Amino acid sequence: MKIRQNNLLLLFLIGTLILFLASCAGTPRKYLAVDASLVKQGQTKAEISEFLGPPHAARINQTGQEEWYYYDVHRHFWQRIPFLGHHLGKEEAECLQIVLESGQVVKRVYYVQGIQS
């Protein structure tokens, strides 16, 4: 009987540890810089859409070229603290601009911009 209680306690502790460790695994983070490095001059709209998905914003510039924009906002760890978070750390937006002409990439620009709240 004593052995069975020890096994139950051990199983409970292992289960608790597994749940605790699983809760620490956040959502996977997307790195726009990596995606930007995959964009090459001459690629088609379809190829870009295949691995980046639809753009977050699009427009036609003054020269008639199509511009696609992808954004990803990152918050500093300290900003997640309730009531104090907006005073600590900073938000940054990763931005990827892809310029298309005749349905093909002619230019890509990746930059990081701070966001003021």
Please explain how this structure is put together.
By secondary structure, the protein is α+β, with helices and mostly antiparallel strands. It has one domain (31-115): Beta-lactamase Inhibitory Protein, Chain:B, domain 1. It is built from 3 helices and 4 strands; from the N terminus they run αααββββ. The protein has a 4-stranded antiparallel beta sheet with strand order 1-2-3-4, with helices on one face. The longest helix is centred in the first third of the chain and has 23 residues, at 2-24. It is elongated.
DSSP helical segment count: 3
CATH architecture: 2-Layer Sandwich
Task: Find the count of extended strands (DSSP E, 2+ residues).
Answer: 4
By CATH, the topology is Beta-lactamase Inhibitory Protein, Chain:B, domain 1
Could you say which overall geometry the principal axes of the C-alpha atoms support?
A: elongated
- Average pLDDT for all residues: 82
Strand content: 25-35%
Cα gyration radius (Å):
23 Å
- For the termini, the CA-CA separation is 62 Å
